[in-house]
Amino acid sequence: MNISRFFGATNREAMRQVRLALGPDALIISNKRVNGGVEILATDQTSLPEDGPAAAPARPAPSAAPRPAPPSAAGPHPGLPEADLMGVIGELKGSLETRIDELLWGSQLRRSPQAVTLFQSLLRFGFSTALLRAMLKRMPEQLANRAAFQWARNELVSHLPVLSSEDALWQPGLALALVGPTGVGKTTTVAKLAARCVRRSGPGSLVLVTTDTYRIGAHEQLKIYGQMLRVPVHVVQDVHEMRRVMQTVRPDQTLLIDNVGISQRDRYIHEQAALLAGAGRAVERLLVLNAVSHGDTLDEVARSYAGDGGTPLRGCIISKIDEASRLGAALDTAIRYKLPIHYVSNGQKVPENLLFLSAAELIDRALAPAQANRTLYAPSEADLAALLSMTQPADSPDAAAERRRQQILLPQLLTGSSRGDVLSLDQLQTAVALQDEDSVLSEAYDLWRSRAAGALPSAAEAIEHLRRVAHGSLGDTQPALVVHARQSLDWQGRRGAWLGAAWFDGQGRPLAAAAQQAGLADGWHTPSGARLSAPSAADALLSQIEAEGRDAPAPVLHVFDGGSQALMRTLSANECQWLAVSSPRARVYLDDEPCVLSAAVQPLMYRPLDAQAFWPLLSAASLEDAQPAWWATTGRAELRVRGEPDLPVRIFSLRAVDARDGRLLKAWFAVAGMAVDPDPVRMARALVLRQECQAAWRQAVPLLADAGREPLVDRAVFTAQMGLAAWRLAQDPALAPAARAAARMLGADRLSPRHAHAGLLKLFALKELLSA
Questions:
Q1: Spatial distance between the Cα atoms of 278 and 354, rounded to a whole number of angstroms
Q2: Is the pLDDT of residue 85 over 70?
Q3: Does residue 292 have a pLDDT over 50?
Q4: Phi, psi of 629 (to 5 degrees)
Q5: Residue 497 CB neighbours (<10 A)
Q6: CA 377 vs CA 5, 72, 295, 374: distances in Å
Q7: How far apart are CA 81 and CA 247, in angstroms?
Q8: How far apart are alpha carbons 8 and 67 in whole angstroms?
Q9: Pairing of strands 254-258, 206-210
């Protein structure tokens, strides 16, 4: 194939030379600006090879002769090698594809503000622009912010490769080598894997090998681990020693190989790959990725080790996630290079700091908010807005007119009052934006939207997600509160009971609904399945407390109503923090004398609580009109039952007194385990929140009983989250603009707790309307 090069002062002049020399059907290969003008590479079909399937039919040569090029330019140069031609064509194709890709991506960002927000958020979590662009191009349009974030989470979960189960790895005869750069934690990880292997099959099932003879003390460190586990350790330096060791290993024994750390830019990386490939036994390789490393570094490591000429990488282990500010880069690398994640390492302790996590757990860890971190290496919303504004197309007159029409008519339609005043469109948009910013409301909106689409998630799936949301909102040491409430239920003409739980933070803010159970005459329904006979009230409550206390990231105080002595003794024996709302006539022992609870607290000194004790509640216990003063006291007593040792407990009383005339408005009594912090503010807040949660779910019961085909327990999770969201909408001062908009859409000036659920549904409908 002959390639000709043409030069002209302008593009038109260069193209005229091409047409004169090669005719109107010339094939343009490249067109680029150079110093002094434009350079074009071109060919014609007569120069295509005639032998082979791709040969083109011959045609007469053009009658016109080539025009000489200017003296300063090289004329046509036939005979350019075909390899160079294919390289030029490849570069041209790649350039065009990149340009088209950029145009499509920029167009999508301009059309979808949600894509911009999501792109910026995921960049902050450490994911690469390459992965995000490929993923967000498939994002459905018209998704709200929370729905878009949930869609992205599901996409990441579905594409993140993970080991299906630990049993899939630990097969008899496994030979496994850890590879990676220096300092990523290979030796410590080998020790952790060795401990797991010994725990599964015993010390006789394992042999350790190290090729690390470069670092001082490296093989001595592994030998120490080997002595602790009572397994042999071999040191090898070349392929011959490796083969000799392999001959001593039984076919059913597991072999773990610790390798010297090699930089991804070191030529020895290929020699190490050849050493493992020539071991005389199939050796699986796992790449150890350091979660602390920058994304570009991880990409370079994965690319180098994947292309080192050795056996294909089986997957990866991510180390040092406890030191990393962001986990996204490591997960991004695993996705793009299709490296199934086998384990993650979260510390130096052997063997406990090695976790086997599912894709959902890994993604949720990566997307967990890290409020203390300053995002210095990701564009802010202002940065992206500035960049987009540079290419934002001019608004069409029709679109501008439609917006003006919406600004005038929509507020009048939704929020007009008899006085003639209306909320502005900006106020309605603020109300919608507050829903996206509040996790309780946004999670309720997601469930509401899923149910409207006929795709309400299962109770198990929804609770697992909501529990992660709650855990992610808690600090490492911030105390948490789980409220357990029981409601009567009328389900399609059948009476029963609904037992639910919800998470609150230490300040009393609701976080998410938790475990839900429901019982009817035909059986007891839970997220894990149904059973024919209902458990006792104490057993049902105990199972719920155990479920929510498991893997909690912070100390948890469980609050419930009543409860038997057997339940209280079980919880105390398990060192669980519990507080039971009790009757004033509950029997306790004080100074070895039996008495009722109300009498036991009388000699105690009541102390006033700070006015901010129940912040951020607009009202507590429906006493906002009375302007109450709060008084509390706490002491110690005992519970006794025949045949059991005495159970020491804390007793607590809370009183609401009318500040104007000293009249007692309401009194609460409770018994708590000795593990509970006797802080009266925390105990008072727990009692009031349990009453508030009970009232919120009582108002939400109609949502549980209305028509629908979803399973009862699935609907219970939906109802519990909606109840929390409605209560928060009516109670939290931060949501006052949203509550006002909801009230105005109901024809009222103020959103009462009784109408909060109807107002919440109006807000959700408004969000859909403004997002359309």
A1: 30
A2: no
A3: yes
A4: -105, 140
A5: 16
A6: 45, 48, 11, 9
A7: 52
A8: 12
A9: parallel
- pLDDT for the residue 333: 94
For position 646, what pLDDT does the model report? 93
Q: What does each C-alpha distance from 137 to 152, 478, 573 come to in angstroms?
A: 11, 39, 54
> Do residues 335 and 359 lie in contact, with contact meaning Cβ atoms separated by under 8 Å?
no
Residues whose CB falls within 8 Å of the CB of residue 68, separated by 6 or more in sequence, listed in order: 75
Q: Which pair of tokens denotes residue 237?
A: 């330096």
pLDDT, greater one: 192 or 709: 192
Of residues 10 and 714, more confidently modeled: 714
Residue 522, pLDDT above cutoff 90: no
Q: Under 8 Å CB-to-CB from 217, ≥6 apart: which residues?
A: none
Distance (Å, whole) CA 609 – CA 687 = 14
Beta-carbon-side half-sphere exposure of residue 697 (alpha carbons within 13 Å): 28
Q: Residue 220: pLDDT above 80?
A: no
Output Rg (C-alpha) for the chain, integer angstroms.
Answer: 35
Work out whether strand 480-491 and strand 175-179 pair parallel, antiparallel, or are unpaired: unpaired
What's the chain's length in residues?
A: 772
* Bridge partners (DSSP) listed for residue 365: none
Task: List the alpha helices (DSSP H) in 550-577.
Answer: 565-573
Amino acid sitting at position 501: A
pLDDT at residue 389 in the model: 54
Q: Which two tokens stand for residue 207?
A: 């042999």
Quickly name the fold that domain 452-724 has: Transposase Inhibitor Protein From Tn5; Chain A, domain 1 (3.90.350)
Give phi and psi for 361, each to the nearest 5: -65, -40
CATH number of the domain located at residue range(s) 166-366 in this protein: 3.40.50.300
* Token output for 144: 């709200």
Only one residue has tokens 């109450």, namely 628
Is the pLDDT score of 601 beyond 60? Answer: yes
Handedness of CA 171, 174, 180, 185 (dihedral sign): positive
Longest dimension (CA), the chain: 123
Q: For the chain, give percent helix, strand, coil, nearest 5.
A: 45, 20, 35
Q: Which amino acid is at 479?
A: P
Q: Does residue 758 contact residue 766 with C-beta atoms inside 8 Å? A: no
19-30 confidence digits (pLDDT tens): 888 877 777 777
Mean pLDDT in residue range 427-452: 86
Residues 557 and 537 sit within 8 Å (Cβ to Cβ): no
Residue type, 321: I
Residue 519's pLDDT band, with cuts at 50, 70 and 90, is confident
Does this model's pTM top 0.70? no
DSSP 624: G
